[in-house]
Amino acid sequence: MNSNVVKLASELIAMPSETPTSNRAISDFLQGLLEGAGFSVEELTYIDPFNVEKVSLVAKKGAGAGGLGLFSHSDTVPGDAGWSPFTPVLENGRLVGRGAADMKGPLAASIAAACPFDATELKRPLVIAITADEERGHTGAHDIVKRSQTLTTAWPQYCIVCEPSELQPVYAHKGGASITVTARGAAAHTSTDKGVSANFKIAPFLAEMAEMAQTFRAEPRFQNPLFDPPTNGFNLVISDGDTATNVTAARTVARLGIRAMPDACFEEAVRMVVDRAKAYGLEVEQRSIGPFFTDADGPLARAACRATGAPRAVTVPYGTEAECYQDYMDALVLGPGNIDQAHTVGEWIAVEQLTRAVEVYTRLIEEMCF
Question: Which pLDDT score, from 0 to 100, does residue 232 have?
């Protein structure tokens, strides 16, 4: 299927599966494709908080535990204006379209590599997992590790998360926390002097956050030199709903982000922010996604280096679903394409990367499943 990987990636791009919408159509297509190639396919569905059906698939070829899993997701960020995101185009050695890099191209490469293998020839099983809602907190991945009978009764020994890494094996990446801080006032025309400005109520907290940002950048305990950049990317955005200047703001929301790294006092950093917000009587909500970290010289990392020709596994600053899988399998991130192209207008992946990914995944299947 190496020659067909671009065709398959194009077919997947042409099936809109933006995270806010249902991914039922693309999941049904993929299930039929995998079953036709000899996989037994488990479907896991749930209704998201917006009453939209979501579907994840876990497909297996071969019996027992161990072997290799190739894990991807079927959802994408929205298509955006200014181009035709769901009309795949081949130009100058690139496949252009929403999800080309993140991650319908990598997903197509994993399927193209896995489908030709005969189940009777496998000594250890081969698993393909395709989750929903990766772009919304890795919801589908967290769901399948709890509910999938295929996985929980016989975990693969090794797991490749096929996110774009330019086919560089990735042994560690950052996670993150999202902290939402809300101040509430009372709206009134400023001529009455009867209003209460939520902006003034939140201002002292914001001043402390400006100081805290300098602390996070300067103090080594909040850094990890294994990553580039080594800092936690502390950021703050604010909204009062574009309140007019002659009206006191009734509600002001500050959203803060902290990127998680191993051995970089991530929990302490989150606690510092939350504690200061509560000290001012502000409302606080938070959610976190942990970092991913495995052995840079473990058996899977060494196998990935052999398959790709890379001298060593590396770290990256972005996050993937590997954080969900690392407690259950020896995991690694390895996929075609550049993360810089993900979520952009005109998103693309190099055709050379797609075809090479099929070869890399094929080598890994041969090593881990035979």
Answer: 96
Residues 131, 355, 12, 23: what is their CA dihedral angle, to the nearest 10 degrees? 0
Structure-token pair, residue 251: 């509600």
Distance CA 256, CA 222 (A): 16
Do strands 251-260 and 175-184 pair parallel, antiparallel, or not at all (unpaired)? antiparallel
Whether the per-residue pLDDT at 174 is higher than 80: the answer is: yes
Taking a C-beta distance cutoff of 8 angstroms, is the pair 179, 274 a contact?
yes
DSSP tag of 121: G
What tokens does 299 get?
Answer: 């058996």
Is 285 in the active site?
no
Indicate the pTM of the whole model: 0.90
Q: Which pair of structure tokens corresponds to residue 123? A: 């000594």
Where residue 147 falls among pLDDT bands split at 50, 70, 90? very high
How far apart, in whole angstroms, are the C-alpha atoms of residue 346 and residue 366? 35
- Written as one letter, the residue type at 14 is A
Element housing 43 (H / E): strand 40-47
What structural domains and CATH numbers belong to the chain?
A: 2-172+291-369 (3.40.630.10), 175-289 (3.30.70.360)
Task: Pick the closest to residue 329 from 156, 172, 195, 185 (CA basis).
Answer: 156
Catalytic residue among 42, 102, 133, 134: 134
The helix-helix angle for 5-13 and 105-114 (nearest 10°) equals: 140
Q: Could you tell me the two tokens for 247?
A: 């009206």
SS3 of 173-204: the string is ECEEEEEEEEEECECCECCCCCCECHHHHHHH
Please state, in angstroms and rounded to a whole number, the distance separating the CA atoms of residues 113 and 365: 8
Active site residue 134: yes
Q: Which of 75, 143, 163, 347 is catalytic?
A: 75
pLDDT band at 80 (very low <50, low <70, confident <90, very high): confident
How far apart CA 294 and CA 315 sit, in angstroms, is 10
Q: What percent of the chain has pLDDT over 70?
A: 99
Tens digits of residue pLDDT in 188-209: 999 999 999 999 999 999 999 9
> What is the mean pLDDT of the segment spanning 340-353?
96
